[in-house]
Amino acid sequence: MSKTPPFYTTGIYAGTRVDVGIISSGGEGLVFLLDLPFSVVADTIMLPKDIYDKQN
Q: Whole-model pTM above 0.70?
């Protein structure tokens, strides 16, 4: 979700940052709290690509 509009975010652990931001703002926290572990795993898998994109 963090790689598509309207939530598009660049950088390292973008999906995790989106989840934490929504949870901390009080919006639909349970759904994003359940999604958080999956976002961490997906962001870790995408970490080499995100680092490459950040350097270029």
A: yes
